[in-house]
Amino acid sequence: MFLVIFLCMCSWSLEGVFGSESVMEGDSVLLSVNITETQRRDGIMWTYGPHTIPLAKLNAENNKTYNGPDGRFRDRLKLSESGSLIITDVRIKHSGLYYIYTTSQETPLKIFNITVYTHLPVPIISRVSSQISSSSSSSSDCCVLCSVMNVTRVSLSWYNGSRVHSSISVSDLNIRLSLPLEVEYQDTNTYRCVVNNPITNHTQHLHVTQLCHTCSEFSCCCGFTEAVIRLVVSALVGVATVAFLVYDVRSGAVLDPV
Ligand SMILES: *[C@@H]1O[C@H](CO)[C@@H](O)[C@H](O)[C@H]1NC(C)=O
Ligand SMILES: *[C@@H]1O[C@H](CO)[C@@H](O)[C@H](O)[C@H]1NC(C)=O
Ligand SMILES: *[C@@H]1O[C@H](CO)[C@@H](O)[C@H](O)[C@H]1NC(C)=O
Ligand SMILES: *[C@@H]1O[C@H](CO)[C@@H](O)[C@H](O)[C@H]1NC(C)=O
Ligand SMILES: *[C@@H]1O[C@H](CO)[C@@H](O)[C@H](O)[C@H]1NC(C)=O
Ligand SMILES: *[C@@H]1O[C@H](CO)[C@@H](O)[C@H](O)[C@H]1NC(C)=O
């Protein structure tokens, strides 16, 4: 019995009951149907989730749209004459399955799978100190990091020429998503970092010569030992200054007549 039901459900999908759509945040989505005069007279209902959250009702006498229990759909829903539902200014939270039912049937007339994607930022490539990034890296390696901020449902990839060198994908909101890459200082291959979702993508090229050969005083070219020496020297200078000040204050106090 269950198997029969399951097979029936499969055959609906095969008959195109199921519509899938990828949209960008801010877009309007049209869940398109053409209801018959009979279906309209009997009444139709749109829900978010199967038989769960009512979104809109339409019948011979009137029509009505709802806000959803959390107000998620407030001022966003419109019904058309054909029974289609229009959702304006969609956000990530409007992703999900939308069902349209006729009053006379338990099974949905059509199901829509809507997936909302955010606008993508351009990735940022920055240099990281190789001592911090990995103990295995040699002094001839330059370690860079490709990052994007505040992204949901994206992949971040490094390309070496036309090949994908490494990739990471996330489905939830990530405040900061990063992917490292180690290249040689003399590397002449072309590298680019790409952020993409099924709708769009952005690319940032790595300029090995610019990023790996610039040498600001405290960042790259100074090796680990040099950094330690700098640290020790500045610490010693600090201690000496404090000692001198303390001595100065004390001798002042002794000499001042109170
Ligand atoms: C509904 O009908 C209109 C015109 O009759 C057609 O352009 C549209 O594609 C139809 N939509 C669906 C979902 O069948
Ligand atoms: C919904 O009802 C209003 C009046 O209450 C009417 O103006 C509008 O055309 C109706 N919309 C549909 C899709 O039937
Ligand atoms: C809806 O579409 C998304 C994106 O294509 C997919 O990941 C998800 O599995 C689909 N949901 C269903 C129930 O098919
Ligand atoms: C990321 O989102 C947070 C919180 O919404 C915001 O404060 C921050 O400015 C955003 N950063 C970027 C780079 O968009
Ligand atoms: C990029 O590809 C070239 C040639 O295919 C290879 O020699 C080089 O090691 C690759 N770079 C990295 C970082 O793997
Ligand atoms: C980026 O988008 C362009 C079209 O805008 C497409 O040709 C290209 O294949 C996409 N690249 C990736 C890595 O998704």
Give an account of the 3D structure.
The chain has 258 residues and is α+β, with helices and mostly antiparallel strands. The chain has two domains: 16-117, Immunoglobulin-like (Sandwich); 124-211, Immunoglobulins (Immunoglobulin-like), CATH 2.60.40. It is built from five helices and 16 strands. The chain has a six-stranded mixed beta sheet. A hairpin with a 7-residue loop joins strand 8 (96-102) and strand 9. The radius of gyration is 31 Å and the shape is elongated. 16% of the residues are buried. Bound molecules: 2-acetamido-2-deoxy-beta-D-glucopyranose (6 copies). Residues 149-150 line the site of one 2-acetamido-2-deoxy-beta-D-glucopyranose. This is Natural killer cell receptor 2B4-like. InterPro entries: Ig-like_dom, Ig-like_dom_sf, Ig-like_fold, Ig_sub. Residues 1-19 form the signal peptide.
> Strand arrangement, largest sheet?
1-9-8-3-4-5
Number of DSSP strands? 16
State the end-to-end CA separation: 103 Å
Helix proportion of residues, in percent? 10-25%
- Helix and strand sequence: HEEHEEEEEEEEHEEEEEEHH
Biggest β-sheet: count, sense, barrel?
6 strands, mixed
Q: What class, by secondary structure content?
A: alpha+beta
- Count of discrete alpha- or pi-helical segments spanning 4 or more residues: 5
Bound molecules: 2-acetamido-2-deoxy-beta-D-glucopyranose
The oligomeric state of the chains shown is: single chain
CATH-assigned homologous superfamily of the largest domain: Immunoglobulins
Number of structurally distinct domains: 2
CATH topology of the largest domain: Immunoglobulin-like
Keywords: Receptor, Signal
Domain Ig-like: 123-209
Signal peptide: 1-19
Protein name: Natural killer cell receptor 2B4-like
